[in-house]
Design goal:
heterodimer, A: 127 residues, alpha/beta, 6-stranded mixed sheet, 4 helices, 40% helix, globular, B: 765 residues, Rossmann fold, 4 domains, 5-stranded parallel sheet, 5-stranded antiparallel sheet, 22 helices
Chain lengths: 127, 765
């Protein structure tokens, strides 16, 4: 199953939402990595990965996500994930990545979090 | 009468000789005697004493010789022996006295025993016994002497010459050991007369009876000096206190005496005849045996011969203790296997010294043997660890191997080796180093190491042998050599390339035919002359062929009569084997050789290597599958495979979660192979098979990339912070977490992975 990636920007580009769709595996992880590269190189402070349409993830996909998270953290930003489907959530649980990555059950929860963050200007996201 | 007066009375008009190191010393024996009103002549050494005795003629012999301790020159026991060996002094009363105050009762006893010829050596160095101990011994001896005298009178009256000889011998020995020289001499005279068959033993018997009565009177009058000390500790002490000495004598007094003088130094066992001596040795093996020769039933010679025949008792030193003192008796004793020979009457110090020396020698010998044996045990383990013993994976299903190494000693010079040169070629080696034991084992280690390293440079047996030969011959000061058979088997085609360096030709057994020699020429020995060639020959194996390589320990195995096992017998054995596995073939050959040799010890090292060629077509058949995919090493094909597997699962109604798990395992394993197995090689072949049953999903993945077991990847440290974790191992961990079983095998040049996802978890498959 191929992977397509849709990107949307908010807050004048300070928050970027990435919506991959399809299977995030060894064959497609490279595609996501290429989409994320310019975003990570820009001055985005919050990167949201909305995984609602990702049906499958393997270690190759997880590596891309973890690498992006590290780059965001290194410059004081945050990577947030939302809408993990059961097989994807299971893979992240197995490697116990969850405590280090902010994950939201739904888009509504994520939006509430983002709104709260914007109210306290300059404040970093909770870890 | 008061003791001092008795002493003066006994010595009136008689001469006393005192032999001591320093007669002028204030506490010298001669000064102590002077204080007792006894005037003694003195000698300052053993040789001087002997001179004085030899020239005593005119003045009359000495009534008593007192021998002090620490004499220069020959020592007290040497002087005692020398005096006993001279006719004129053989019956003289001797008092061997240790350093210290003079022992008046012992002195009186010695003088009162003169008529009985009894040397009362109480407290003397000669017996090493305290005065009261001697008294005990004498009191125990009295009834025995009585019985012997009565028995002697009876057998002489019956004109039983053999009985008289036996009784007189026993009495003479016992009396001699106690220092009753008069009785000893009389009994010996009777023994000799009886042995010579001389008639009229009456006068000799009368002498014995007279001496016996005098001795019994002297014993009754003997008063030990001082009070008995508290009982000595019963446990032996000293460096050899854990050593056991078996005393064998049919005369009770002799046993008593030996027990008394040895009990403080060694553990003791006692036997009164030959049969019980052998039983005692069997139940409680001693470290040394003091063995009387003349005993009723089994005599000492026979007991000794039986002990020396038995490997379990062969090493126990045997010391004969006997009053037989002719050269031929001694010779016979040594011929029976004796370590030493001591004649009665013996000097106790000498017995103790010889027993001690032999036990120390045996202790040393035991220690050396134990050390050697333990080192050899380790060496044996090392040598056995050098050759492969797990043959299961070597042939990859196309060829099945087994081999054994049976050194004649702990280690040996035979060798075998089986190892893979690459995916399809197997190297087979059997060899035999000249000689046996440790030198052969060292050369064997060198040879096997060389073969393994040189085989990596060349996969041809002729080249391997030529190089091994040059390497060994280049520096071989001991001129050892090795015979070697080396072959390389291509398991795909069955082509066997062989070369022989002076080794016996292996046998090839093919169904329906006679086992035949594999190579026509055995070739030249390896390791002696550099620059030799070892021409290769080729044989095509067909499925079912059994190849058996061996060393001459098989064909030259011998029966106790010296008959050889021989190659004909080996061929017959192989012909009768049928279609057995190589392990069974090796076991059958070994069992055949052992049965043939019977009780004969294995004379030479044995190595046997058997290979059954199954053929490439006989590989384990691929399991049936619901989906078979032949992929190339590209991610396009990985996507294709994932799509096909997902479609299969959906068609077959497999639930979503197991399907995702299976796809996760598939993606992780395939991406590993594409990335690491075939880097830069998009043509690399990967085969995927999926089988779906009611119970489980089975995924088989095979590739022909270099051997790599992904399951050996270390489990990542999942508790470490994400930033510090290495990326490797994550995929394998993920797959392992969702699958129930993951297995890896390398066979037929393939990496084979099998992943199983059970459909009904919690149930045992």
């Amino acid at each position: 199953m191929p992977l397509t990636v849709r990107v949307s920007r908010e807050d004048a580009g300070a928050t970027v939402r990435v919506h991959p769709s399809g299977s995030l595996d060894s064959a497609t992880a490279g595609a996501l990595e290429r989409e994320l590269a310019p975003i990570l190189a820009s001055k985005v402070s919050v990167l949201v990965l909305d995984l609602a349409e990702v049906t499958f993830v393997s270690s190759a996909g997880i590596r891309v996500v973890l690498a992006a998270r590290k780059q965001m953290a290194d410059r004081g930003g945050a990577l947030l994930m939302a809408n993990l489907q059961p097989p994807v959530a299971k893979a992240f649980e197995i490697i116990r990545a969850i405590p280090d990555v902010a994950i939201f059950k739904s888009v509504a929860e994520l939006d509430a979090y983002l709104a709260a963050m914007q109210r306290q200007a300059g404040g970093g996201p909770p870890r | 009468m008061e003791p001092r007066a008795r002493l003066a009375e006994a010595l009136r008009g008689r001469r006393v000789l005192v032999v001591e190191r320093d007669p002028a010393a204030p506490d010298s024996l001669s000064r102590q005697l002077a204080a007792l009103d006894v005037t003694a002549e003195t000698a300052a050494s053993g040789p001087e004493a002997l001179l004085r005795v030899a020239h005593a003629g005119e003045a009359g012999t000495f009534a008593l010789i007192v021998i002090g301790a620490d004499l220069p020159g020959m020592g007290a026991s040497g002087l005692t022996r020398a005096l006993r060996g001279r006719r004129e002094t053989s019956a003289l009363p001797l008092l061997t006295h240790p350093r210290g105050p003079i022992d008046l009762p012992a002195l009186l006893g010695a003088l009162e025993g003169v008529s009985a010829g009894l040397d009362l050596v109480a407290g003397s160095a000669r017996l090493g016994l305290a005065s009261h101990e001697l008294a005990e011994l004498l009191r125990a001896f009295a009834p025995q002497a009585d019985a012997h005298l009565a028995a002697l009178a009876r057998v002489v009256a019956d004109a039983d010459a053999e009985g008289a000889r036996r009784e007189a011998h026993a009495l003479a020995g016992a009396a001699g050991n106690l220092g009753a020289t008069g009785l000893h001499r009389a009994a010996r005279a009777l023994e000799h007369a009886a042995r010579a068959g001389a008639g009229g033993l009456g006068p000799a018997l009368a002498d014995v009876a007279r001496e016996g009565r005098a001795l019994l009177a002297a014993i009754a009058a003997f008063t030990p000096a001082g009070a008995a000390p508290p009982p000595a500790p019963t446990k032996p002490r000293g460096e050899l206190a854990d050593r056991r000495v078996l005393v064998v004598d049919d005369v009770r007094t002799n046993v008593d005496l030996l027990v008394r003088v040895l009990k403080d130094d060694y553990l003791l066992s006692v036997a009164f005849d030959g049969e019980s001596a052998l039983r005692s040795v069997a139940t409680q093996p001693p470290d040394l045996i003091l063995l009387d020769i003349m005993m009723p039933g089994l005599d000492g010679y026979e007991v000794c011969r039986r002990l020396k025949r038995d490997p379990r008792t062969r090493e126990i030193p045997v010391v004969f203790l006997t009053s037989l003192d002719e050269v031929r008796d001694k010779t016979q004793g040594f011929e029976a296997g004796a370590a030493d020979y001591i004649t009665k009457p013996f000097e106790i110090l000498e017995v103790k010294a010889r027993v001690g020396a032999l036990l120390r020698a045996k202790a040393y010998q035991d220690a050396v043997r134990e050390l050697l044996e333990s080192e050899l045990r380790v060496a044996r383990e090392i040598q056995r660890g050098l050759v492969p013993r797990n043959f299961a994976a070597l042939g990859g299903g196309a060829a099945d191997c087994f081999a054994c190494l049976e050194p004649a000693r702990a280690v040996g010079g035979d060798l075998y080796d089986v190892f893979r040169l690459d995916d399809r070629r197997l190297c087979l080696v059997v060899g035999d180093v000249s000689g046996k034991g440790i030198p052969a084992a060292l050369f064997m280690v060198m040879t096997i190491t060389l073969i393994r390293s040189l085989a990596r440079l060349s996969g041809r047996p002729d080249e391997i042998l030529a190089r091994v030969n040059d390497a060994l011959a280049a520096d071989n000061p001991s001129s050892m050599f090795v015979t070697l058979f080396c072959a390389v088997l291509d398991v795909e085609t069955g082509r066997l390339t062989c070369a022989s360096g002076g080794h016996l030709s292996p046998l090839l057994a093919r169904a329906g035919g006679e086992p035949r020699s594999l190579v026509a020429s055995e070739g030249t020995l390896v390791g002696v002359q550099p620059g030799l060639a070892f021409p290769a020959t080729e044989v095509e194996l067909v499925p079912g062929d059994l190849l058996v390589a061996f060393t001459d320990g098989v064909t030259e195995a011998m029966t106790p009569d010296g008959a050889l096992f021989g190659e004909a017998r080996l061929r017959a054995l192989l012909r009768g084997l049928g279609d057995v596995a190589p392990a069974d073939a090796v076991a059958a050959v070994l069992a055949g050789v052992r049965a043939f040799a019977g009780s004969a010890e294995q004379a030479d090292d044995i190595a046997i290597l058997a290979v059954r060629y199954a053929g490439a077509g006989r590989r384990t058949p691929a399991p049936p599958a619901d989906l078979t995919l032949d992929l190339r090493a590209t991610f396009e094909d990985v996507v294709r495979a994932a799509a096909a597997v997902r479609e299969l699962c959906e068609t077959r109604g497999v639930p979503r979660e197991p399907t995702d798990d299976l796809l996760l395992g598939l993606d992780e394993m395939l991406s590993n192979i594409v990335t690491y197995g075939y880097p830069g090689n998009p043509a690399g072949a990967i085969a995927v098979r999926v089988a779906i049953s009611e119970d489980a999903l089975r995924l088989d993945i095979s590739d022909r990339a270099p051997a790599f077991n992904p399951l050996e990847a270390a489990t990542p440290d999942l508790d470490a912070p994400l930033d510090t974790r290495p990326v490797g191992g994550l995929g394998v961990h993920l797959a392992r977490s969702v699958m129930d079983t993951m297995e890896y095998a390398r066979a037929d040049g393939e990496n084979r992975l099998r992943l199983i996802r059970r459909l009904r978890r919690g149930e045992v498959l």
